[in-house]
Amino acid sequence: MHHSLMNVLRRHPISCGLTVLALWSSSAAAVAPAIDATDVDSSSAGQGPIRLNLPRSNAAGESAQLTEGLATPPGNSDQLVGAGTKRSEFETYASQLAGAPIRRLGSDLMLPSRSVAATEANRQVPPDYIVGLGDEIQLTLWGSVDADLRLTVDRSGRIVVPRVGPVVVAGVRHADLNDLLTRRVGQVFKNFQLSATLGRLRSIRYYVTGFVTKPGAYSVSSLATVMTGLVQSGGPSVAGSLRNIELRRNGQVVTRFDLYDMLVRGDKRGDLPLQADDVLHVGPIGPQIAMIGSVNKPAVIELTSGDTVSDALAYVGGLSTVADTTRLAIERLSERNDRRVVVLAMPRDGEQKVANGDVVRAFNSVTAALPQAKQYKNVRIEGEVARPGDYVLPPTSTLMEAVQAAGGFTTQAYVFGTDFSRESVRKVQEVQYDRALRDLETDFTRNNATKKVASSDDAQAVTQNQLSTSRLIERLRAIRPTGRIVLDLKAESAQLPSLPVEDGDRLYIPPRPNTVGVFGSVFNGGSYLLSDGNSVEDILQLAGGPTRGADTGSIFVIRANGSVTSSRSTGGGWINFGSRLASLQALPGDTVFVPEEMNKTTFMQEAKDWTQILYQFGLGAAALKTIRN
């Protein structure tokens, strides 16, 4: 094979470079692997550029032999538990006071990941990186010579370039690598260009000691920094400091790393690159306080000497947008037996120092209800107004001012029938209504329990009565109050009363109706057209009048504004015997109801009828009573 190569060279003398190749092949065998015929590309036999190839044994084996892989940290990296997962006793205490999870500031940066080493290895190599043992150099040449080589720095700090020989690169800056190799290759070849970059980097071994989750030795990329080393080892334990981390090299402290510098201020100057055999030592955790409430990042903060309330606020990003900026509260752990809370006036007391165990709370200025006189009101106005919709009104606005904000009444507005609902009234009604239902259910149960059964027919009647009672209670529970307030208006009113509005009020102005409803024990219940001057008596006659079973002494009229007028409230007596209800003028939107006589129907039938009244109208009357009280 050597004879074949020499014959090719004799037939095709192409350049002085081949003479150098022949000399180097015979005399430099001691310092470089031998090159066989397969190391010269076939293009060498022609007029193309010289092709440089690595010997197979070197290309496949030397790199793997000299370059260490990134070692796995002690134990399973998936099981590493750092400051980002465990919770200290003080964090638990602060979380209980805040009613939400509170963690150490910076703990989320310490979550270990299996991809940390790979991420560091793929980082861009900085210009001041120092080439060392185990680094891989990717060398590309073109022009009179063609090469694409991956060379690993050997234990002597050299790489071996085919036909050029060994080149010492250990200790050379990455930025100077191109110039060094260009000069060295230029001693052999002319008219070429060269590019040298770093490929796979060497790994370095460092040590983590002190208050860390997993102390021990770790291997990472030579690009790793202090921060990388901390994350790779799981970070400080719950008893370890995030602000007192030392980088020790050859027994000397090179730097003290404070994670808050990078986390809060973006200062990364302390995050120095690691070197082989460096030691990261994590000290014990310092004094701590908790910042809770309306701050931008509630957290447990590790203090340094002299930190003040203002410093603590700066660590968590300051107060939130909705915070009360005039005051803070401090609960001191040293005085927890008395649960003593000190209120600070801000910003005057911002320079007061904080102590270990303090819990500083910022207050929310929005959730606390303001006095009605200071609240802006969100009101919905619907129906016969020029511009229905939702409106935000000044604190002292009235109903009429709300209507004016919506453009005023239309010509069809029936002011007397205005439906005015209030959220605060609805909540009070719900409480009272649920209490009334419980009392009613208790009365029904007691009534059924005291009944004596003399026969099977009586027992069947009692059972049926209990079933009917249960159905009635279920129907009543399905009915919920609406919060309607009955307004004191006259039939011809064109204005609403000067009642201040509240947040959440709803105002519905209906169109003017032209009918009156008649229901209950009448011969032909329904709605009837109202004529001018019609009385309630006239409307009843249109419905055929009361039936024989009607309780005429309990007839009542429900007005469009939600008020109720009855025979009993107007002087008593049957409607045909001089009752004022008989001559009462009927108004648009009235509903006349004629109930059944009690002794001519069962109790449950009467309850059913009154459930209908309660569903449609009774809650409005209850709202009026609530407001007046």
Automatic annotation (TrEMBL):
Residues in Soluble ligand binding domain copies: 206-254, 292-338, 379-414, 516-565
Signal peptide as annotated in the record: 1-30
Lineage top rank: taxon: Bacteria
Pfam families for the chain: Poly_export, SLBB
Acyltransferase keyword on record: no
Keyword terms: Signal
Database matches in InterPro entries: Poly_export (IPR049712), Poly_export_N (IPR003715), Soluble_ligand-bd (IPR019554)
Coiled coil (UniProt feature): none
Region Disordered: start-end pairs: 61-82
Stretches assigned to the Polysaccharide export protein N-terminal domain: 124-197
PANTHER family: POLYSACCHARIDE EXPORT PROTEIN GFCE-RELATED
Record's protein name: SLBB domain-containing protein
Taxonomic lineage: Bacteria, Pseudomonadati, Pseudomonadota, Betaproteobacteria, Burkholderiales
